[in-house]
Automatic annotation (TrEMBL):
Ranges in coiled-coil conformation: none
Listed Pfam families: Acetyltransf_1
Superkingdom to which the source organism belongs: Bacteria
Domain N-acetyltransferase, first and last residues per copy: 3-141
Protein name in the entry: N-acetyltransferase
Keywords attached to this entry: Acyltransferase, Transferase
Amino acid sequence: MGIEFLQVKKVEEWRAYHAIRRHVLFDLRGLDGYDDTHPDEHAPGHMPLLLRKDGVALGTVRLDLSEGTTGIVRLVAIMPEYQRQGLGRILMSEVERLSASRGLSRLEVYAAPDAVPFYEKLGWVMVDPGKISPLMAKEIESSDHGSGSGDGPRSPL
Ligand SMILES: CC(C)(COP(=O)(O)OP(=O)(O)OC[C@H]1O[C@@H](n2cnc3c(N)ncnc32)[C@H](O)[C@@H]1OP(=O)(O)O)[C@@H](O)C(=O)NCCC(=O)NCCS
């Protein structure tokens, strides 16, 4: 089955998406208050996305398309036991491919301080280190080819 990158739509996909985010970004950081009913998840132009390997959901990200040709990447998370195995890189390359296919030329993220070296490895640059979550950005090349082509993960988007 391999790696799949898909937009969250079905009930079981929403369940996996929220479970990963709650676990990685809240429980493991000692935070509570994760709201799986937040209206932002369903706002126009907001794309909740799931990375699965062999049918198992292991990573999430949300891409917000609502700001012209700049997309905002939110709440990137890979399950802890699968971190540092290249899945974050695959997830972000799929986000870039999807963004390019939607005509975006720039991505921004309010990075967790721990994750800054990860984004730097992937070619992101620091825009504003002064924030609690530093603002980073990456310029991307637009594409006319859409997503889901080539040898990458299956992307039914
Ligand atoms: C940050 C995160 C998404 C990275 O995913 P990952 O699957 O571990 O990353 P990868 O294995 O694809 O790593 C890609 C590259 O970044 C490097 N990297 C990843 N995390 C790193 C870190 N914390 N510090 C330094 N380098 C890091 C890897 O070594 C790798 O480099 P290489 O290709 O030269 O070997 C994941 O660790 C995670 O979910 N962390 C907790 C939640 C979080 O902080 N999310 C970001 C919110 S903005």
